[in-house]
C-alpha cells in the first residue's frame, strides 16, 4: 500500500477568518489609537505597515498575523495583552 503524499496548506475552500473576531480586534485597535490621539497614517508608519492595510484591520476586513499584532501593539506603546483584553471587551459587550 502506497502512502498518500502530504499536501501543504489548508484544504481547498477552508478558511480561518472569523469576521466577528476581526471586527472586535479592529475596533480595539481603533479605540486605542484614537484614545492616544494618533492618526491612522501615523500608526501605520510606526508599525511599519501600509495605511490601507491598517484601515482594513480596523474595519475588520482583515485578520492580522501575529507579527503584525506585535508591531501594532509596539506602535501603540502597549502590550499585546492590552490589545487582546480590549478585543475581548469588544466581543463580550457586543460593540461590533
Q: What does this 3D model show about the protein?
A:
The model has no long low-confidence stretch (mean pLDDT 90). The longest helix has 17 residues, at 19-35. The radius of gyration is 16 Å and the shape is elongated. With 96 residues, it is mainly α. α1 (19-35) crosses α5 and α2 (40-47) packs across α3. It has helices at residues 19-35, 40-47, 51-58, 66-75, 80-92. Helix content is 58%, strand content 0%. The chain has a single domain (19-92), classed as Orthogonal Bundle (434 Repressor (Amino-terminal Domain)), CATH 1.10.260.40. It starts with 18 loop residues before the first helix and ends with a helix.
Task: Set out the fold topology.
Layout (H helix, E strand, L loop, with lengths): L18 H17 L4 H8 L3 H8 L7 H10 L4 H13 L4
Which keywords apply here?
96 residues; mainly alpha; 434 Repressor (Amino-terminal Domain)
Shape: elongated
Helix share, percent:
55-70%
Radius of gyration: 16 Å
Poorly predicted runs: none
* Helix-strand pattern: HHHHH
For this structure, what is the CATH homologous superfamily?
A: lambda repressor-like DNA-binding domains
Q: How would you classify the quaternary structure?
A: single chain
- CATH secondary-structure class: Mainly Alpha
Number of strands: 0
CATH topology: 434 Repressor (Amino-terminal Domain)
Named CATH architecture: Orthogonal Bundle
**On the 0-100 scale, what is the average pLDDT?**
90
The largest pleated sheet is described as: none
Sheet-strand content, in percent, reads under 5%
> Could you give the distance between the termini?
52 Å
Amino acid at each position: 500500500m502506497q502512502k498518500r503524499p502530504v499536501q501543504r496548506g489548508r484544504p481547498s475552500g477552508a478558511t480561518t477568518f472569523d469576521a466577528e473576531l476581526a471586527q472586535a480586534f479592529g475596533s480595539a485597535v481603533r479605540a486605542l489609537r484614537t484614545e492616544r490621539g494618533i492618526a491612522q497614517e501615523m500608526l501605520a508608519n510606526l508599525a511599519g505597515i501600509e495605511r490601507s492595510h491598517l484601515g482594513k484591520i480596523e474595519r475588520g476586513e482583515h485578520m492580522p498575523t501575529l507579527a503584525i499584532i506585535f508591531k501594532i501593539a509596539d506602535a501603540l506603546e502597549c502590550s499585546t495583552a492590552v490589545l487582546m483584553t480590549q478585543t475581548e471587551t469588544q466581543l463580550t459587550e457586543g460593540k461590533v
